[in-house]
Design a protein that fits this description.
Helix content is about 40%, strand content about 15%. It has twelve helices and ten strands. The strands form three sheets. It has a five-stranded antiparallel β-sheet with strand order 1-2-3-5-4, sandwiched between helices. Strands 6-8-9 form a three-stranded antiparallel β-sheet. A two-stranded antiparallel ribbon has the order 7-10. It is globular and about 60 Å long. It binds adenosine-5'-triphosphate and magnesium ion. The site of adenosine-5'-triphosphate (ATP) has 21 residues, from strand 2 and strand 3.
Length: about 325
């Protein structure tokens, strides 16, 4: 599944439909400029991700740059933006993440302002020089975010593990278009996806949404992790392992994708059956969610999830031999 050959989906960085700066209420724009202490002279809307909120790199009078996210306070995703503010505010300086400058509510919107990262999304295709930069950042992240700097987050087994699954539900209500392999192995896949949560908890702040559009690489070769909206407390192997389906989507075989993680202690130490279960869980999650109706103003999510499901199924086949 090469990254560039499939013209049926938009490229990385062009999947979200977001409002332009000038479309925002005047009171909100004035508030943001006031808090930043300078007029906004240019705003580059960022198309990465799927959320329909504001995500813009602002250039201020005087030349400074700031990255701003914002969402109406009553939007269904506003709680995620609030969670991101809590998590980002507690990230240690050594974490490979942009600094949160402030967050606030104004004109009925919730706003976050970050240090701007002048970067691009990594290419995760085989042999890409971006891969060691990203894996190094994820390894450092696991170290700098242990012990978890944030109180009150759910443990992974109670948080992301409840969402990251799908085969049990699919076994209960099997869609007519489910593939033959999936249908044949459905009961075994439903059992398999239930194993990893017993190994998911821990004392690390887990980002929980590692994808290339949440990663930026600067021209100095530094990788940054953005979008801390789905954090939980858990075992550090999860963020590192989450790169694998994205490397498969970018053209790696499952075995080659796994090889890129060798040497990262959290990956080296995780028991093999836990990874097999985790792969199956991702496959189930994407197989199930890609069949749900598209959320309003999020046109590309389901097609992305279909490609992700195919990658995670390939990974599961490789690990199980089924
Ligand atoms: N600090 C930053 N500096 C520059 N660009 C950034 C910064 N943070 C994020 N971006 C860019 O903006 C895009 C959207 O940001 P982010 O992922 O935080 O938003 P989101 O609305 O939560 O998206 P998602 O749909 O992934 O949940 C990212 O894909 C990235 O390209
Ligand atoms: Mg994002």
């Amino acid at each position: 599944m090469p990254e560039t050959d499939d013209s049926s989906h938009p490229p990385l960085g062009a999947t979200a439909i977001r409002p332009a700066w000038v479309e925002l209420p005047e009171g909100l724009r004035e508030f943001i400029a006031g808090r930043l202490g300078a007029d906004v002279v240019a705003a580059e809307v960022q198309g990465g991700g799927f959320t329909p909120g504001v995500a813009a790199r602002l250039r201020l009078a005087g030349g400074e740059r700031v990255f701003v996210k914002a969402i109406p306070d009553d939007h269904v995703l506003a709680a995620k933006y609030r969670t991101e503010a809590l998590a980002a505010a507690r990230l240690p300086r050594a974490a490979p993440a942009p600094r949160l400058r402030w967050h606030d509510t104004a004109a009925g919107w919730f706003v976050l302002a970050f240090d701007d990262i002048h970067g691009r999304h990594p290419r995760l295709s085989p042999g890409s020089p971006d891969i060691p930069l990203v894996t190094a950042a994820l390894a450092i992240m696991g170290e700098t975010l242990t012990p978890c700097p944030l109180d009150g987050l759910p443990q992974a087994s109670a948080g992301r593990a409840r969402m990251l699954r799908g085969w049990r539900e699919l076994a209960g209500a099997t869609p007519p278009d489910l593939g033959e392999w999936e249908r044949h192995h459905l009961p075994a896949l439903a059992d398999l996806e239930e194993l990893w949560p017993a190994h998911a908890d821990g004392d690390t702040l887990v980002h929980g949404d590692i994808r290339p559009d949440n990663l930026l690489i600067t021209h100095h070769g530094t990788a940054y992790v953005v979008d801390w909206a789905q954090p939980c407390q858990g075992a550090a192997w999860q963020d590192v392992t989450d790169l694998i389906p994205h490397m498969i989507m970018a053209g790696h075989t499952p075995g080659a994708a796994e090889k890129t993680l060798v040497g990262i202690p959290t990956w080296d130490l995780v028991p093999a059956h836990v990874i097999t279960s985790y792969a199956a869980s991702f496959a189930g999650y994407w197989t199930r969610s890609s069949r749900l109706p598209a959320p309003p103003a999020v046109p590309h999510l389901r097609a992305y999830q279909r490609r992700a499901a195919a990658a995670a199924i390939a990974w599961t086949k490789y690990r199980t031999g089924w």
